[in-house]
Amino acid sequence: MDVKNAADAGRIRDRELDEELADVLVAISVITKRLARKISENLRKTEVPSDGQNERAVHRD
């Protein structure tokens, strides 16, 4: 009986760890998206129209 309880407890703990990991990955994704948006906004603000010199190609996927 103790072995079964230990196995059940291990599965529950594994599930809890999986959920916690999923939450951390979602948080990283949200932060990455915010940072990408801020970088993009900053690039747009700092871009200065030029006469063709020193132009930088921006590729968007």
Shape: rod-shaped
**Count of separate DSSP helical elements:** 1
- Can you summarize the main beta sheet? none
* DSSP summary, beta strand count: 0
- Look at the helices and sheets and give the structural class: mainly alpha
User: What is the arithmetic mean of pLDDT?
Assistant: 85
Report the sheet-strand fraction. under 5%
Short description:
The chain is an all-alpha fold.
Tell me what the structure shows.
With 61 residues, this protein is mainly alpha-helical. 74% of the residues lie in helices and 0% in strands. The chain contains one helix and no strands.
Question: What's the SSE blueprint?
Answer:
Layout: H1 2-46
Which terms summarize this structure?
mainly alpha, 74% helix, 61 residues, rod-shaped
